[in-house]
Amino acid sequence: MRLILVSVAVLTLLGACSNGEKTARYLIDPPVTGGSVPNRLGTAELKDVSLPEYAAAGEVSWQTADGAVRSNTKELWADNPQRAVTQSLARAISDVSGATVIAEPWPLAEPPRRKIEVRVEQALARADGIYRLSGRYFVADSGAGGANQARSFDISVPLADDKPATIARAQSQAVGQLARQIAQLAGPGRSIRTSSAPVPDINDIFSQPLPPLEGS
């Protein structure tokens, strides 16, 4: 009888753990706000956004008053956070500027003029009631005389509370603000001119047809 009761308890516990309605999943979906900005990027490939480990995890995280970063196994992101941020950022930059910004790998036959890399240092709902998204971004222009950008960003969005849904909205807003900043090539930093034409890729060299033999 005792064995039966234990088995029933285990099955009940497993059933509760597997109940999908008890697990909440949140989207990263930047809103389209404000007017459009000039297209300063043309075509650009966005590399996978680099996130801190806590922000790249599947759980929505926040900071408590003791300074610890905490999370709940039942409050999850709806997609892999790195993929979601990268895809959302690329779409938001394109929407706000009209540029063709696509997350890597580049799918078009014509290569992109520029490459964008974003390195996030902090992406956190902090204990002071602010969602902070900070780090650096880089825009590489391989054309001779092109302007390469190395700039920083530090975006703050007020939080009404520390509920996961509120955090998800704040992160989406922060990604949208970052998209506008990158589209305008704005923020503290510097611009560095490309001094020479890029070195041809060895695969490109050997993919070209060979010249005809003399006398053929």
UniProtKB/TrEMBL annotation:
Name this protein carries in UniProt: Membrane integrity-associated transporter subunit PqiC
Region annotation Disordered: where it falls in the sequence: 189-216
UniProt source species: Paracoccus mangrovi
InterPro entries in the record: ABC_trans_aux
ABC-type transport auxiliary lipoprotein component domain residues: 26-183
SUPFAM superfamilies: XCC0632-like
Pfam families: ABC_trans_aux
